[in-house]
Every structure is written in C-alpha cells, then in structure tokens.
Specification:
Length: 345
C-alpha cells in the first residue's frame, strides 16, 4: 500500500466567535461522506475505492491530519464486531463499549456500541493484518473470540465477581411472658431457592448468625444471586431474611399451636367393683374459661385420659384456666366429689 501526504499551508482558526472548535473536513475528489466508499480515477484507467474511517480527521497541535485509505475496487474486507453483556442491571440495553481496529500499533477505525449490538467495518485487504480490540470496561472481564479469517469478532463482557457477608440476629415476637423458647435453632441459607449452608444458633450467643464470603453474582448469566435466610420452629411463623429487610429473620408466636395437657384419673372406692355396680361410662365436663366451649371426657373404669387443649386465649397472651368436675353418678355407694380441680395452663 502506497502512502501520499499533503499539507495545507494556510493558517486556520481553531475556534469560532462563540469559542467553539471548528470542524474541518478533508476529502478527495469523488469522495462522498465518512465511512462511505466511492471511486477516483487512477493511472492507466485504474479505479480506486476511497474509504474514510470515522477518525480520519484529527486536530493535533492545531493541525488537521487526514488518513485516507485508497484501494482498488474489490480489494476490501468487512470485519464484523458483536458485543454481549452479562451483568446484573441494564448493561444489555445501555452498556457502552469502544472498539478499535488496529493495523499493528495504528488505529485505523473505531466504533462505540451500546448494549448488545454489532458493527461492521469496511477496510482494505488483507483482513489478517488487522486486529480488533476493546477499550477496557471497569468492573468487567472480557472474553474475545475471532474466526479463522479474522473477519468476525465476538466480545462478551461479564461482571467481575465480588463477595459479601450476611449477618443478622434472629428476633422473636409475640411470645407470652414465661413461655420457654428453644435453646437452639438451625438457620438455613438458600441461594436461588436451593440450600447451600446452615448453622446452629443459640440463645446463649444472642441468636446471632453469620454466613461469610458469599459470591454476589452468577457468572454464567451475570445476574445477582438471590439469598434467603430461613428456619422452621414449631409454634412460630417465620419471616425470611432477604436482601430488602437486611436478611433479618423473625419468628412470630402462633397461639393456636400451643396446647396444654392434663391427666384426669378417676379412683373408685367400691372394693374393686365387688358388687358390679360400677358404670361403664362416667362423664366429667372440662370447662374452659374465656370461651363458651365445653368438652366432655369419657372415663372408663380406671383409665387415664390425657386431654390436650389450647393453652392461650384469643389474645395470644392470656393463659386459659381449666376446671374439671365429675358428673352425676347413680347410686350412693360412691364417695361424693370434692372441690373442683382447677389450674392454670
């Protein structure tokens, strides 16, 4: 490729009356606009195609420099650059990257792509003399591939990996005074819905939990991982720890879950049913204060009856007081019932 140089000796103003830089353009006869190709007549009737890269006119120390690439018609090559983003935000639509076509150390053309996009350069042959490079984008790693003919380049920018810690203190809400909490709880760490770790936390250590050195991004997609902190404690509903609440895990008391147990045993003073007068069934109403419900316990002979009932009233805090009384028993061979058996759950 032959090179010709021409210098305009005139003195040109750099700024206009408003203080803005003038834009100067230089064109060969027959040229159209930048990045378009036309032809000019050469020696012995040969026609040359003229290509003007975007950066063909630059201002250096007040002097305008032109790089015009003249090639014989048909002696040109197209090089396509494709760009893909992998990141957690809107990079695929708005991320900007600059690409340069180099012939050795000389930049012969360039372009800027926004989001996932592509661009085609038209340059003199041969393609093997060129290389396309991307100006580094902070916070991203770049994977570059090129075909054997060096006419198709693909660039993928992936968000750089970073790590962070999740820490928190498990909270308990609505627990009635005097109710015993578990001594330990197993806390689960999930990533994108799958369990990846767990830890046992204790009351003695203030219910604190920590998961450290967690990857922030899925590098196969560039998207941010979704982490949740969960647990399962009987008698409580859990509010999972997620990013929006600072990974705070909270357990709320569920009154309906909690039950009280009491054993009612009927003793008979009849010589072991010597006369055969003992009834097969004996009912004693179990009365629960605060609610109108009455339950009846069917006592058979010396059988024990284990009764499980709600431990707290509808306010979720007040313990329910139960009373057990024996019902009417026919005949006079039985010891009259004493005072009602009462207790607080």
């Amino acid at each position: 490729m032959n090179t010709a140089t021409y210098t305009f000796e005139e003195t040109f103003d750099v700024y206009d009356a408003d203080g803005k830089l003038y834009t100067y353009t230089v064109a060969e006869q027959g040229a159209v606009t930048e990045n378009q190709v036309t032809t000019i007549a050469g020696k012995d009737g040969a026609e040359y195609g003229v290509t003007y890269p975007k950066q063909n006119v630059t201002l250096v120390d007040g002097a305008a420099e032109l790089v015009a690439l003249n090639t014989l018609d048909g002696d040109q090559v197209t090089i396509t650059v494709s760009k893909t983003w992998k990141g957690p935000g809107t990079e695929a639509a708005t991320g900007k990257a600059t690409f340069q076509v180099k012939d050795g150390d000389t930049v012969v053309d360039s372009c800027e792509l926004t989001g996932d996009d592509s661009h085609t350069f038209t340059l003199p042959k041969p393609a093997a003399s060129y290389d396309v490079v991307e100006v580094a984008v902070e916070g991203y790693t770049t994977d570059k591939t090129v075909n054997d003919e060096k006419t198709a380049y693909s660039f993928t920018n992936t968000i750089g990996q970073s790590t962070f810690d999740i820490t928190g203190t498990k909270a308990w809400t609505g627990v009635p005074e005097g109710e015993n909490l578990p001594e330990t709880v197993t806390v689960i760490l999930n990533r994108n819905g799958e369990k990846i770790d767990e830890g046992v936390i204790t009351a003695a250590e203030g219910w604190n939990y920590a998961f450290e050195g967690l990857d922030k991004y899925d590098l196969t997609t560039g998207k941010e991982y979704v982490y949740t902190v969960t647990d399962s404690v009987g008698g409580f509903t859990a509010t999972d720890g997620v990013k929006s609440n600072g990974y705070q895990l909270t357990n709320a008391f569920v009154p309906d879950y909690w039950k009280t147990s009491f054993e009612v045993i009927k003793a008979w003073n009849d010589g072991g049913n010597a006369d055969g007068d003992r009834p097969e069934h004996l009912c004693g109403p179990v009365c629960r204060r605060y609610l109108p419900e009455v339950r009846r316990a069917d006592l058979r002979y010396l059988e024990a009856y284990l009764h499980r009932s709600a431990k707290y009233a509808t306010d979720g805090k007040t313990p329910i007081q139960y009373t057990v009384k024996e019902g009417t028993v026919a005949g006079d061979v039985f010891t009259p019932p004493g005072p009602a058996l009462s207790w607080t759950a």
